[in-house]
Amino acid sequence: MPGAVLEQPATCHAVVADLGADTHRAGWAGDEAPRVVIPSTLGAAGEPLQILLDRLADAPPRWSSPASRPVLLSEPNAHCRAQRDALAEVLFESLELPAAAVVKSSVLSALAFGHLSATVVDVGADLTSVAAIRAGKVDAERLREWPFAGRALDAAVLAALREQGVEALGGRGWQPARGRPSVMRLAQDLKETVCFCSHVPLAEAESAAPFVHTLPDGQRVDVAAFSRRVPEALLVGDGRG
Question: Which of 84, 182, 210, 223 could lock onto 194 through a cystine, CB 3.0 to 4.6 A?
Answer without folding.
Answer: 223
